[in-house]
Amino acid sequence: MKIATWNINGLRSAEEKMLEFLKIEKPDILCLQEIKVDDSRLPENLKEPNGYRSYWFHALRPGYSGVAVYTKEEPIKVEKGLGIKEFDHEGRTIVLHFKKFALANFYFPHSRRSLERLDYKVKFNNAFLKFIKKQDLKKTVFCGDFNVAHEAIDLARPRDNVKNAGFTEIERGWMDRFLSTGLIDVYRKLYPEKQEYTWWTWRNNARERNIGWRIDYFLTSKNLLKKIKDCYIGTNVYGSDHVPVIMELDI
């Protein structure tokens, strides 16, 4: 099975690239974040392209946030949100339950340049930690845009960003807490010394200069790690300021 996660940064603006990715990469499941669209306004070719089913959880605010999942296999159950209004209004969580495993797709808040949303992000992180503890970790895959670079290896210029959004001690400490529950950062586990990124700012030709951050993750338990064949970053995929992360597993 092949699962991909991708912050698409506006599905309507990136729809051609997304459909091209589905055609070329052929993932069994594609998790999207920051879709910025209400699915009721989408044409059918974006709802069920090439045999995929799709499940959506959009934000109440138009053109903002939201998550979606395209899947070839029909899930047994779909859960939208964490049951907490201040987060669910922003469409940040969708969980699909399949016969053999569950897939949780998350879009974590950005704490913003002046850190004015750091408290909100901490509250969301706490809710995510509680969510983790309620799950059967042996059967759950977590993925999405976590909006944090965990270690210095996960961004091009760590010393320049120690107090900046996405690399503060508070945010990195929360990533430690998530992993202390028994979850594993799949890409980093497989490639402990590899330095690749999943996001680049639009400014100053950052992508061309490869001044980026790795902020998009797959997290699984040790039990599921044994079933994973590979986890890699689609560095050459365009359409967003992020690129997809793809995980292949035998499940």
How many domains make up the 3D coordinates? 1
User: Which residues sit in consecutive blocks of at least 5 with pLDDT less than 50?
Assistant: none
For the secondary structure, the number of strands is: 12
Largest sheet, order of strands side by side?
A: 3-4-2-1-12-11
For the biggest sheet, the summary is: 6 strands, mixed
Structure, explained:
The structure is a single chain. The chain is 24% helix and 25% strand. Helix 4 packs parallel to helix 5. With 251 residues, it is an alpha+beta fold. The termini are close together. The chain has a six-stranded mixed sheet. The chain has seven helices and twelve strands. Strand 1 (2-7), helix 1 and strand 2 form a beta-alpha-beta unit. It has a single domain (2-249), classed as Deoxyribonuclease I, Chain A (4-Layer Sandwich), CATH 3.60.10.10.
